[in-house]
Amino acid sequence: MNPAGILCLGTTPAAQRVMLLRTLNLDAVNRATTTLDGAAGKSINVAKVLKALGEQPVAAGFLGGDRGEFVRAALMQKGVESDFVTVATPTRQCITVIDESAGTHTELVEESRAVAPADFDRLMAVVRRRVVECRAVVLSGTIVSGGPARFYFDCAGLAEAAGAISVVDAQGAALWEALKARPSLVKPNHAELAATFGRPLRDEEDVRRAMGELVERGAQRVVVTVGKEPALAFDGASFWRIFPPRIRAANPIGSGDAFTAALVTRLLRGEDLGEACRWGAAAGAANALTLMPGELDRRDVERLARDVVTRRI
Known about the structure:
The chain is globular. It is built from ten helices and 15 strands. The protein has helices at about 40-50, 65-75, 115-130, 150-160, 170-180, 190-195, 205-215, 255-270, 275-290, 300-305, and strands spanning about 5-10, 15-20, 35-40, 55-65, 80, 85, 90-100, 105-110, 135-140, 165-170, 185, 220-225, 230-235, 240-245, 310. It is of the alpha/beta class and about 325 residues long. It has one domain: UDP-N-acetylmuramoyl-L-alanine:D-glutamate ligase (3-Layer(aba) Sandwich).
């Protein structure tokens, strides 16, 4: 692996299908005008966007069965290096249904099934081997059912010890545990943050208080995205509000992952959190212009970055 690599780790990758319909009618036969198949899941999306931005990502996690082999081949076709643990559990299938007339995006998510405890040991061995060659480790998504809640804590600790940036995009117990490793950045979205705290976050002040608590508990920096609404960022001293560019979205699924990918690339360049988030917002918007998550055009990111407004609060 290139010494400048970025490890993108997630335990729940997916074979992704996107179906475009002129109109979605419930309890009826629906015929898609366009169907696309690819690889997705939060960590996979991050890896694909990093590759599009000129980085050298390595995707890691669990893959099983025919769909797992499909995901592996799809990443190879995109030029994304992978280091997956092959498991007996089949890789899940997720389907996005887009209703053009209503402008809606419906996500049908197959939950990942448990893997053997020994599979986590093998995945941790991958992390230990790879982390010494990485500038950053991005930990994304749900830990598969039955997995240890401290898995991201262990991975973030290895990254920080190796001098790499550690990024955690998770919620609930996995996030609380990871905070003990003092990760470089945590990046939940608004819904994930509310679920982690177990209470509604009704306004920006509620969100900022929650972000402050994450810093108190160990996060070095926090970014919270809210779809097409302004994101918030906090580095322990300053807050920023990031206004994304206005676009007509084709499919917003995966835009948070694209935000994470571009954010990491800019932090690795030494930019401050506000400026890094400007590029994150541009990548999130560029991702929403595409039908398949994580398969944006770098030129769109560069164009849209000019339209992002970042304000220190």
